[in-house]
Amino acid sequence: MRNPIIQFFKFIWLSLKILVVVAGGHGGTRKTT
Length: 33
Fold this sequence. Notes:
The protein has about 35 residues and is mainly α. The chain has one helix spanning about 5-25.
């Protein structure tokens, strides 16, 4: 059985990478959502 903590951090890390890519695509400006 996988460790839920590890899975949680993997999910957070993936989300952060996606956010960085999206922010970079928008010129690195802060997005107001």
